[in-house]
Amino acid sequence: ATLPAAAQTDSTGVTPPAATQGDVSPPASTEGDISSTTSTAPAAPAIADAGDAALDAHWSARRNWLSLRGGYAKSGTEDAANGSVGGGIGYSRMLSKWKIYKWTLFKHFSLGGYVHVDQLGRFGKSAEIEVPATLELVRHFRWGSPYVHPYLGVGGGAYYRKLYRSGDDIGVMRTGKYLVLGVNSPIDDTNVLGVDVRLSKVDATNVRVNPVFGIGDDNATHWSVKLNYAITY
């Protein structure tokens, strides 16, 4: 006689579980149930840090700057003409820091040379022109943001002065010194835009009393405000 299915056993004597139609349910799968253990959120701070470092590279040691400037220039002597225009070109290099005993020197400093041509003012067709060829040492700073880099420095060199169409024209070479300050902001990893301000002290006496510009001043203040564009590499 055939035993009922519930009483059938296999060769080991173990009764297999009864199978009923539809009794086996596949594992439930819900969308999004798998934990994303391998996925990570974008490393936003790391990306931002890398971008800041690329902008700050303009001020890293041994970086070279080629600058082009243009703007306003004026003589501060008494009875001087109204200010006029000026421009210049220059090269500077960010210095490597020097470690001397416990002191670190020239960190964030640059050394550069510049030639400017400034028309300090005009009376009609008469003009006062100055061509300074100078060296300058500048300390650069970073104020919170990679886009704000002020600077402060000193410089000096040869100042060629010319009075033109004055009725008694002269051209003389004198020495001068100046204070320079300004701020630069990177455009990208190669280009920088900024504003440069110079306050110069120059012997601006004329050889003789000039019919237009007078006797001049042996401690004249000449100043300029110029837009500065630089390529760095």
What's the arrangement of secondary structure elements?
Elements: H1 44-56, E1 64-75, E2 84-94, E3 98-100, E4 103-105, E5 109-123, E6 126-140, E7 149-164, E8 170-186, E9 191-210, E10 214-232
Mean pLDDT over all positions: 85
> What is the H-and-E element order?
HEEEEEEEEEE
Q: Which residue ranges are poorly predicted, with pLDDT under 50 across at least 5 consecutive positions?
A: 1-9, 18-25, 28-39
Helix content: under 10%
**Distance between the ends:** 99 Å
Whole-angstrom Rg: 38 Å
Largest sheet: 8 strands, antiparallel, barrel
User: What structural category do the secondary elements indicate?
Assistant: mainly beta
In percent, how much strand structure appears in the residues?
A: over 45%
Q: Spatial order of the strands in the main sheet?
A: 1-2-5-6-7-8-9-10
Q: In one word, what is the shape?
A: elongated
How many beta strands in the DSSP annotation? 10
Specify the number of helices. 1
